[in-house]
C-alpha cells in the first residue's frame, strides 16, 4: 500500500515533476514563445522601423523629390513668369514700336498731307518734279525743223548780261525767307508727288513735251510763291499774279500769206523720216503770258514766255554762245548769213533767232520782260524803257536731273523756281508800255535779216569777187528745216505797216519825235449829245462836256459833223496813239472780234468808245455798221449811237501782239449787266425783254444775245444792246427798203449803200 502510495506519490511526484516540467517547459515555451514573440515583435518592430525608416526615407525622398519638383516647378514658373514677362515686355515693346511706327507714319502722312514751309516746298519741287526731266537721246525720235522762223521780226542791236539780276535775286530771296519764315503756306508733299505722277515719265521729244514739265515744275511753283508773298505782305498795288496761255486782251490773228503752192513746196521740203512739231494755228503768239491782277479787278500783262524743244536748245548752247560772243551777236550772225559761203556757227544762229523771237514779242507787246525755256535752259530777258535797242539776259542754272549727285548738291536758292519768282516780282514793278512807245521803239530797230546800211557795206567788202551760183548743201538744209537764209539781195519787207528799207538817218529822226501820253479823263458824252451829233440836232446841255463842245462860243449847235469827228479822231491817233486814247482790255472789255477803247477828241471834248478790230475782222464791223444804219431810230435808246467806222492811218498795237487796224466809234452804252450797275428796284429781266422785243420788231437777229452784250444805261434808265458783228436783219413785212441813213465814216471809203436782196441788210461796198 505504501508502495502504492509510494508509487502514487512517485507517480504524483512524477506527475508533479512532469507537471512542473511541463509547466517549466510551458514557461520555457512561453518564454521562448514570448522571446520569439518579442523577437518577432522586435523583428516586426525593426521591420516596421526599417519600413518606417524606408517610408521615412521614401517620404523624405518623396519630399525631396516633391521639394525638387516644387523647386523645379517654381523655377519653371519663374522661368515661365520671366518668359511671360519677357513676352509681355516684347509685346509691349512691339506694340510700342508698332504704335510709334504708326504714329510716325501718321505724323509723316499728316506732314506729307499738310501745307509745307517755303524751303521745304522748294526742296520737294526739286526732288519730285525737276528730277523727272530727261531729253530724248535718239535724234530719230525727236522733232525736226527749225527752232523758230524770225523772218521780219525785230531784233536788238546789242546783247548784254543782266548784271544786277543776282543781286536782285538774293535780296528778293531773303525777303521771301523772312516773310514766309516757317509758316506752312505751300502745298503738301503729297500734292507735289501727285503732280509728279501725272507728268509724262518718258523723255522729251519736242516742244509740246516740255510744256507740262515747265508749267508744273517751274511756273506753277513760282506762281504760288509770288501769290503767297503778295498775301503775306498785303500788297496794295498788286492783288494777284498768274500765268496763262493768252494775253489779257484781244487775241492776235494774222492773215496767212502762203499760197497753196507755197504750202505744198514747204511740205515737200520736209524729210518724211522726221517727226514734225505741231505748229500753232495763230502765228506769232507767245506760248505764255504773265498776268498781274490789280485791286480794282483790272488785269495787266507784264511779260511773255516762250518754249523751245530741249534737244534743239540745251542749256550748254546758251552757255557756249554767251561766253564766246559779245554785244553784237545779232549783227555778227546776220553778217555771216549775208555772205555767200556757209555759216558754220549754227549754234550762235539758233540762239540769236530764239532771242530775236522773244524780243520781237516784247517789243510788239510793249513789255519790258520775257523769258525763254527749253526745260534745261531758262533765260530771263529784260529791256530798259529808255533804250529798247539793248536786250539784257540772265541764264538760270537748271540742275542736271540725270546726275543724282548734282541734283542733291543743287541749292534751291538758285533753282529755276526761286529765280523765276524773282523775275516775276521784278516784272510786277513794270507796266505795259504805251502804243506810242511801241511805235517809237520799232522806229529804232531793224527787222531780221535787214542790217544797218553801214554794216551791209562792211559785210559786202568781205565777199569774194566771184560767188557760187548755187546754194550750198547747208543753205538747202536750212531752207528745208524752215529757217531763213537771206539771198544775196534780201527783198524789202513792210510788216506791221512800216517800211524796213528806211535809212538809218530816217529811223533816228523818227525815234527823236516825242509824244506826251494823256489818257482820256473826261466823262462819257450823253446819248442825247451823240445822237445830236449824228443826226444834226442841237447840243445836249446836260452833257458833262457841253462847254468844251462849244469851244468858247455861245453856239448850241455841234461845231463838227460825225464825219468830221471820224477824220479828226483818225488824225489824232496818227499823230499820237497815246493822246486821249485808252485801251480798256485791262478791264476785260474785249471779245473774240474786238476790243474797246475810250477816246476823247482833243479840243472838242467828245468822249465815247471805239471797238477796235484787226485786219481779218474788218468785215465784221462793216456788217455791224450796216446793222446800226438799219436801226438808226433806236440809236441812243435801245442801242448805242454809231458815229462811224475808221480805217486807222496808224495801226494800234495791243499787249497781245494783236494790231488794231480799224475802229467803230460809238457812244458808251454802260457797264455790262454782269456788273449789276442798277438799282435794286429795277426789273432787269423786263428791261432786257423790252429792248430785245424792240430790236426784234425792227428785224434784228442778234445770234449772240447774252448779258455780256447788254449794258445798263444810267442816262436812259434802260438796257442797251450792242455787239452786232454776227447779227443780221430780216426782211420787213412792208417790203425791202432802206431804213437808215448809213453810218460809215469817210475813213472806210464807202462807195454806195445798197440793200442786200437776201436779208434786207444795209451793206457797204468794200473799200
UniProtKB/TrEMBL annotation:
InterPro entries: Kinase-like_dom_sf, TTC14
Region (Disordered): 1-106, 461-519, 731-751
Transmembrane annotation, as ranges: none
PANTHER family, sorted: TETRATRICOPEPTIDE REPEAT PROTEIN 14
Record protein name field: Metalloprotease m41 ftsh
